[in-house]
Write a structure and sequence with these properties.
InterPro entries: DUF4010, MgtC_SapB_SrpB_YhiD_N. This is DUF4010 domain-containing protein. Keywords: Membrane, Transmembrane, Transmembrane helix. The chain has 411 residues and is mostly helical. The chain folds into 2 domains: 128 residues, no CATH class; 277 residues, no CATH class. Helix 1 runs antiparallel to helix 4, helix 9 runs antiparallel to helix 10 and helix 10 runs antiparallel to helix 11. The longest helix has 53 residues. The chain is elongated and about 80 Å long.
Length: 411
């Protein structure tokens, strides 16, 4: 090992120990009960580094030695501080010091993470004890289980003979609806309903505007005073989805985008205007600023929406198999009822491959957009009730009408 490399490793280990030790001394309330401060952490980190340089057996002896001393220190300070954070941090200093020999960059990054965790003691205690309710914790754990435990276990093979729907696909929709509800709930807690819901709605639209419409509909049904804010958030989700729609078409067929651009710009403007009006109405009412204490999402509604979208996908696949290439454009519009971006990509690909002419493809783009608006209108009424449904339908109708008007005026 070269001298410069050895010096770099030793300095990395020393820096890790100093950083963790400084944070420990800074955050500890009683210096008399502090078993390991800046110097101790720096020394044990160097000990781990030198031990690993000598060999794995020497490193193991260093770990055992520090472990014994840490145990003795814990028994000595247990009456004043029953926590194990300091002892675990000390052992981590040894481990990270040894790791710096193998991968100094990774060791330094992990050292920063350890220091940040130690420094965030008060905010994390406040978050867990005061800010998060028991119901919110239950919802977060349910979402985590749905995404990280259940979904990886589901088979990816399709259930139907057309290959349109698989258990993983259906459950992914469920997780998206739950995630949008959680995202909106967190944003409302942070920024209030006036700004939190629109922000959450817009960014949720890049993942799934259908899930966003459903999630906001659930909130509008539970909190009727927030209907305008929820409807505005749902329309902003569709705005994000429309921007992604434009990007998909542009990536596959720039020529088609150039011909359809007047219609798409008109649709964007109409959606911005209607969502802006609803947002202004929400701001005029003080009740939208009220804190939400309800659930972040409802699993039953998420399952219902997923089943509905899966049913539409099956219908589109069956009709596509029935009509074949003769009804390929109609089938693509039916696909848009469930997934607008896949349908947009399909229309653009049909134009690029020469299956449909450019003029027909331009009409197809607007047909896909209108089909998606129809599906989301149904979702809005099903999830949020009549008032929410009409407000969302107004915005989607304005978007679709503006797009068709732009097409007619550009001819």
């Amino acid at each position: 090992m070269e001298l410069n490399q050895t010096l770099h490793i030793l300095l990395t280990a020393l820096g890790i120990g100093l950083m963790i030790g400084v944070v420990r001394e800074r955050m500890h309330s009683s210096a008399s009960a502090l078993a390991a401060g800046t110097r101790t952490h720096a020394l044990v980190s160097l000990l781990g580094c030198v031990g690993w340089m000598i060999g794995s057996s020497a490193f193991l002896v260093c770990m055992l030695l520090v472990g014994v001393l840490t145990t003795a220190a814990y028994w000595h300070t247990a009456r004043e501080d029953v926590g194990l954070t300091g002892e675990i941090a000390l052992l981590l200093s040894v481990v990270l010091g040894g790791l710096s020999v193998r991968n100094a960059t990774l060791a330094a990054a992990l050292g920063v993470m350890v220091a940040l965790l130690l420094l965030a003691k008060a905010p994390m205690q406040k978050l867990s004890r005061e800010l998060i309710t028991e119901r919110e914790l239950q919802d977060a754990l349910m979402l985590g289980a749905a995404a990280l435990v259940i979904m990886p276990l589901l088979p990816t093979s399709p259930l139907d003979p057309w290959g349109a729907v698989s258990p993983t696909t259906i459950w992914r929709i469920v997780v998206l609806v739950m995630a949008v509800g959680m995202f909106g709930h967190i944003a409302q807690r942070l920024f209030g309903a006036r700004w939190g819901l629109p922000i959450a709605g817009f960014f949720s639209g890049f993942a799934s505007s259908s899930a966003a419409v459903t999630g906001m509909g659930q909130r509008a049904r539970d909190f009727s005073t927030q209907t305008a804010a929820c409807a505005s958030a749902a329309l902003l989700a569709n705005l994000a989805s429309l921007l992604l729609f434009v990007a998909v078409v542009a990536a596959i067929s720039p020529t088609l985008l150039r011909f359809a651009l007047p219609s798409l710009v008109a649709a964007v403007v109409a959606l911005v205007v209607v969502s802006g009006v609803l947002l202004w109405r929400a701001h005029q009412s003080d009740v939208t600023a009220a804190e939400s204490s309800g659930r972040a999402f409802k699993l039953s509604q998420a399952l219902l929406i997923a089943a509905l979208i899966a049913g539409v996908s099956l219908l589109a696949a069956w009709l596509g198999d029935l009509f074949g290439s003769a009804g390929v454009l109609v089938t693509t519009m039916l696909v848009a009822l469930a997934e607008v971006h896949a349908a947009a990509a399909g229309v653009a690909q049909l134009q690029v491959s020469g299956v449909v002419p450019l003029e027909v493809a331009r009409w197809g783009v607007l047909g896909v957009l209108s089909s998606s608006c129809l599906a989301k209108t149904v979702l809005a009424f099903a999830s949020g009730g009549a008032r929410y449904g009409w407000q969302v339908a107004t915005g989607l109708l304005a978007m679709s009408s503006a797009a068709w008007l732009g097409l007619l005026l550009s001819n």
